[in-house]
Automatic annotation (TrEMBL):
SUPFAM superfamilies: Bet v1-like. It comes from the Bacteria. Gene3D superfamilies: 3.30.530.20. This is SRPBCC family protein. The lineage of its organism: Bacteria, Bacillati, Actinomycetota, Actinomycetes, Mycobacteriales. Residues 13-135 form the Coenzyme Q-binding protein COQ10 START domain. It comes from Dietzia aurantiaca. Pfam families: Polyketide_cyc (PF03364).
């Protein structure tokens, strides 16, 4: 059964700076506790990552997955191509300029696992992922541009 989570945060930076951090997928190993390794397998003509292999480990589950990114003005999404422990993963960041030098960031994630985990573990993992995707992103953006 697929589970989903949404998280919202305001980041004291502009959309271009936030998009640049998100496009630097190799740096996920530095600011996401779950990411152990990242390899860009395909980029578009402008150098934006399109197909990315990731090794993640969280709550006793280690997985290697390949995701496909789609980049838009103020938005990025990715979907699962292959994974050892997931049937489905769809994620999206939507960025909105607040007009005051800050940006509202909305993160949505939907995951369906091949393996069964206790509900409590799934809830903890969801919170951890949402926190990393928003608070972790904010910390990295401010570290680079704050």
């Amino acid at each position: 059964m697929a589970v989903s989570v949404q998280s919202v945060i305001t980041i004291e930076a502009g959309i271009p700076e936030i998009m640049e951090v998100m496009a630097d997928v190799r740096s996920l190993v530095d600011w996401s506790d779950a990411h152990r390794a990242v390899e860009v397998r395909e980029e578009d003509a402008d150098g934006w990552p399109i197909v990315v292999w990731e090794k993640i480990s969280q709550y006793g589950v280690t997985d290697e997955m390949v995701v496909r990114y789609e980049w838009y003005d103020g938005e990025v999404s990715w979907s699962l191509i292959e994974s050892g422990s997931q049937k489905l993963q769809n994620a999206r960041y939507r960025l909105t300029d607040n007009g005051d030098g800050t940006t509202e960031v909305i993160f949505d994630l939907e995951v369906d696992l091949k393996i069964k985990l206790p509900g409590m573990v799934v809830k903890k993992a969801q919170k951890s992922i949402a926190d990393t995707a928003t608070k972790g992103l904010r910390t990295e953006v401010l570290r680079r541009y704050g």
